[in-house]
Structures are given as C-alpha cells and as structure tokens.
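Entry for the shared binder. Reason: the reviewer on the internal report wants the predicted structure included alongside the sequence.
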Amino acid sequence: MRDCTWWCARIPCSAGTAIWSHAGTPSGPGSGARAGRARALYPRPGVAAGPRESRLGVSPGARRAAGAWDKGRRFHRLGKLHEAGIDPAPERSSTTWADFLRSQAGALLACDFFETVTLSGVRLHVFAVIEHASRRIRILGATAHPAASWVAQAARNLVMDLEDAGCRAQFLIRDRDGKFPGLFGVILADAGIDVVLSGVRTPRMNSIMERWVQTCRHELLDRTLIWNQPHLLHALREFELFYNGHRAHQGIANARLLQPLPVPLVVPDQIASLGIRRHDRLGGVLHEYQHAA
C-alpha cells in the first residue's frame, strides 16, 4: 500500500483540502464535498468510477440505450441477410480445408511414407497412396534407402496404375518430407496431377492417409514379426488385397472397395440356416468371412 505522501503529491495540500489517509478515507476540515471533487479529478488506481461519475458527460442510462439500439440494428441486418440466404461476409469468399476435401474427393489422392523395423533391426520405409473417394489403397513399395531415383520410379508406377484403372485424379496431397525429390512433382504434373503440400506439422490435413497408416500398424505390423524386406512386401500385398477387396469401410457406408456388398437375407428360413465360412490370411492375422454356398 502506498503511503499518504504519494497522495499528497497527487493532490495539493492547502487549508481545507481533503487528503487521503492510510485507511482510504478523506480527512480534514470540509472533507465531504471536496473529497468528492478530488475523487472525480484524481481517481484512485484500480477503483472504477461510480455510476454517477461519468467523465464523458453521458449518463450510464443513455449509453446503455444507445448500445441496445445499435445492437438491435445489427441483429436486424443479420436477420435480413439470413432470410435472403446470404452468409456473413467472412464466409462468402473463404473455403476451408474440409470443404476442399469434400468438394474434390473424386479427384484427390494422398500419399505418405511410414517406417517399420525388421527382426534384424533394419529400418524399412513403406510408400503408399490412397484414393479419397473410394478409399482404395496402393502400396507402391518398401525400401531401406528411399533415394530420389526410387521415389521417382514409384511415381511413374503410380501414373501407370492410375491410367490402367481409369482413375482421373487431379490433386495429390503429401507432406513436406525431404524424401520427395523435385522430379516427383514433375512426373505427376506431366500426368495432369497437381501436388498439394500440407501444412508444417499439420498431419490432420492428410488425415485419411494418416488414418490408413494407423490401421495398417494396428491390424498388421503390430501383430506380425517381419523378417526382411521380401517378407514385408508379401505381408503388405496380402493386406492390400484384404483392405481393398473384403474389409468394410465406415467412411463409405460400410461398403467394400472392389466388390459389391452381399445380398441381404430377409427370408426367415435363410437366417435360421445361416452358415458362415472364414478364410484366414497371413496365418490367421487377417480374417475374411462369407456366406456358405
């Protein structure tokens, strides 16, 4: 707490002038009216002015009335714009990343590298591409040394696979990994595919590809001991066939990618005598189920 000498410096002391004491109350002769004027001229730090001590010359009631009137005008204008189907100004010209993914899903690809380690301690890099609309996955290869020539050849293989499948992709989303050489974008640009870079440390911009990497780790790599590179490629090929041909996907109404859903059974006799057959892949790591003939 400041002593009274600081207040005395703020308020000139003279006969009959109120000064502030340590208790925060004025003292001295004629302290009532003069203390009020002193508070108006020199308000205490941290103490707001009272309802009748407006320094702008406008009463609080008038300020509240003016604010309510201005707020009513704004709400009236927003209501008219909403009735006319016009969004607020920031929403008219801005396009969010989610809107871009939804509107361009049929022409979008996404790719990414992820790593796995063999029993001998060798670190292998897997390169995969996914289609946003159909969720079809393409595993382009695995290598211990992802050199620029290897990545460029993987891009050429991707372009040939897309042409054989009749896929008309226009954009490919990738992160800013240094494994991608400049030739990678040139090869895709010659095929009519523009490379879209995700933000720095923003994996959510490539969320569909990141989600597949998590699925591959959870359903395959975390449950399999990989001996070497040929064993890894064999396991990835089996998982690719399982993922594209049998596994249902919630993002596309629980449909399978390359095969139609089976005809639903509605006859009670068929349901009573229902037979299910299981087919195992990779020694029981993956299971496929189908109706018995």
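Summary line for the report: The domain at 100-260 is CATH 3.30.420.10 (Nucleotidyltransferase; domain 5).
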